[in-house]
Amino acid sequence: MAFQQSSSYRASMASSAFPASTSTPFNPSTSSSAFASPATPIRPLPSTILSSKHAPPLPPASQTYEPLVKGVLASRLARWVFPWALAACIAIGGAWTWGAGVGEDFAEFVRSAVGRGFVLWMLVAVPAIVVRKAGLTVSRTPASSPAQLLRATMARPGSPRTLLSLLGSAVLFGAFFAIVDSKSRFTVFVNSRKHPHYLNPRLLFLLSTQLATAALFFLRVVLRDRMVFPWTAPQLNPTSLTIVPALSSVAALPLAGLTLLVGRITLGLLYWLPVLPIFLKPFTGHFVRGGLLGGVFGVFNVFGSRVLGVIGQAFIAGFLTTLVWDVACYLFDSCVAMPIQTTTDPAVLVSAVSKPSSELFQALAWRELEARAGEEDGKGEAFARALLADTALWPHVVRPGLLLLGEDYQKLVRRGGPAPAPAPSSATEESASQSTFGQSTFSSSTPSFGASQSTFGQSTLGAASSTPSASTPVKPTPLLRASIFKQAPPSPARVVADALAADGVVGRVPDVFNGAVEGVEKALHPVEAAFSPLGKTLAGPLSKSIAGPLERAVSPVKDALHEAVVEPVRETRGAVAEIVAKIHDLVLPAPVREAYGSLHAWWTRERAGRAAAGALPRRETDAVVVGALAHIIAHSLTADRFGAVQRDIPRVMEAMVRFLGEVEGWVGEMEARRVAVAEELERARIVRDLEGKGRVEKGEDEGRGEDEGEDARAAESERAPPKENVEALEHQLALIEDDLRHAHEAFGGVAEALKTALARIVRTFGAKLSAFRFPPVVAAKIQGWIDVVGV
């Protein structure tokens, strides 16, 4: 079927939507002289027939929809999340009490279990739930590597507060654990009469383990992007619920030991400063005995014979902390992910869609709007009929939806890149904007898909007095980009840590020498440039007898400068680089360096699948927007009496088709890359197998002669890829398949929602779509959908 413009259909629809009206203009010459006297001003008579009645503006969502949503979520927290978290903490406290062997009778056991569970709930579960609630967002963090993800997450305003809250919660529970566990002697000071103020290394190790546990849990939250609103309830896996906290607690133990090691080194450096050791020695003197290594091992020697017991208690504390956090987050996600049904009034939902205070409430309003419009048994059609009864509501639905889809479509087109800088406006555009002062621009069609700005339903207002003219340029006020506050001097520990860091002073020594060498070479370039043209100039008109001695006179000067300045600097640079490399080799053994290199490569490697997922940070919101628009458009065939929705069908369908095409195009590019690498790997494996079987036989070598046999073997070895090449291709193919899997997970929901929406609209309207005009590419795609649906 061909898609063409039906003039009669569109004319009848436009006439039904906007009925024409005529009026006779007021003519002052026909009025009486009494009304034209200067004493009586001329005033137009108000008309009650031709006056336009504007619909009242929609109230903001903060007054209509958001209080309802907040009430539902608060009720779920009070009735479900907090009570169930308390019950889980009491059960965990009972297991902890039983493992500690506390309670001789049942009553004492119950009191201890309830008390420990309540403290777990107050110190661990409640902070995790509050932090999870405060950090909810619908936009994922766009990043292609774990390093970029952590950097972007920490740049958000609430991330540092989340980390500090988790650290404080872990430290408080560690202190409570030290109080209730009297067998391991987690006191603040050691039990010594000679040194009563020495800090207890057991307590320091326990608190360090808790800090490491909190840091690892925050890293898990960041890498899994768990601050995003849970659209679906998580699946409970008892095995992972116990194994993950155990592994996290085990990983926290070496981090705690590393923290003590860094603290010991920093403390040893602080002891070199004057006066400061007088105040530190009464509390930390036992940490610096026996030199560097002696002090490091002395930290663990102070544990005595119970060093394994101290490590075991630290493991239990970290395990309990992580387990309670995981249980609390699971309960929160399960209760919040349930559908929210607040109202059946379309105006309330439309106000939340068009005038939200945050993206979260807008996304929840879109989800509820989709659920209401998609109900069965005629409820969805009744809701759509109530929404479309007021023609002023539909523009407040379609415009925010298309703008949101357009913004995400532009991100897909840019492949997740940043938005381009806006072009500067010209003088003609400014004059055009001033000429439309006081005029209201209302277009019957929807805004151009993907445009950042639109005039749909907007009024162009401007003040001639406040708008500067193009002839008088305005000098911009310069901004102070330097800090206006006095910087506080850094602490000695911070100075030492910065110097020993990878990008500190020690690590930048080779770069300093490189810069010095480059500076000297740049300084010598003008000398060479000054003498070289002179020699070339004199060599032309003058004889070679004059140019030769001049070059011989310049060469010793240049060689002397190189030998006196450049060569010593290069030698010093090489020596410093060797010293730094030897220091790294001495401090870090080869296995540690290899492990660090692998970890650093994994941490900084950019992943195409993650980049694809980052290009659609609001993919769940896009899916519900598409579903809501499709349901309302499908119901408009019978519920829309004025044709307000049908005017926007071409724009909406074009938006869906282009969005789906961009998603499928990105996935197709990744699939083509996977197929190319798989074919290359298959060819490499075939050639490797042929080489292993020995394609050059001994009889042919003897018949050809010794020289010909050697040439054949050399050519065969050149054609055969090495084993490392096959392994590299296998590794590359595995990475591409992993990226493709992440891309399918990211795009799957949106693509399925777009396909379902297009199929619903095509199935509902069928041949009536021929009344609309579509671009050729979009028309071909819709024709394909019609052939598939079979209407």
- Strand order in the sheet with the most strands: 1-2
Provide the number of structural domains: 3
The residue ranges in which pLDDT falls below 50 over 5 or more consecutive positions are 1-38, 44-53, 291-297, 426-471, 716-721
Number of helices: 27
Calculate the terminal CA-CA distance, rounded to whole Å. 11 Å
Strand content: under 5%
Oligomer description: single chain
Q: From the alpha-carbon coordinates, what is the Rg to the nearest angstrom?
A: 38 Å
Q: Assign an overall shape.
A: globular
> Based on DSSP secondary structure assignment, what is the total number of beta strands?
2
Order of helices and strands: HHHHHHHHHHHHHHHHEEHHHHHHHHHHH
State the share of residues found in helices, binned by percent. 55-70%
Short description:
This protein has 791 residues and is mainly alpha-helical.
Would you give an account of this structure?
The protein has three domains: 69-336, no CATH class; 350-417 and 615-695 and 722-791, no CATH class; 500-604. The chain is 67% helix and 1% strand. It has 27 helices and two strands. A two-stranded antiparallel ribbon has the order 1-2. The chain is globular and about 95 Å long. Mean pLDDT is 74; it is low at 1-38, 44-53, 291-297, 426-471 and 716-721.
How is the topology of this model organized?
Blueprint: H1 7-17, H2 61-64, H3 66-100, H4 106-134, H5 146-154, H6 159-180, H7 201-224, H8 238-270, H9 276-284, H10 291-301, H11 307-336, H12 346-354, H13 359-373, H14 379-388, H15 395-413, H16 427-435, E1 439-441, E2 458-460, H17 492-500, H18 509-539, H19 544-587, H20 590-604, H21 608-614, H22 619-639, H23 649-693, H24 698-704, H25 706-719, H26 723-765, H27 776-789
Antiparallel strand pairs: 1-2
Helix pairs in contact: 3-4, 3-11, 4-6, 4-11, 6-7, 7-8, 7-11, 8-10, 8-11, 8-17, 12-13, 12-15, 13-22, 14-22, 15-22, 15-23, 18-19, 21-26, 22-26, 23-26, 24-25, 26-27
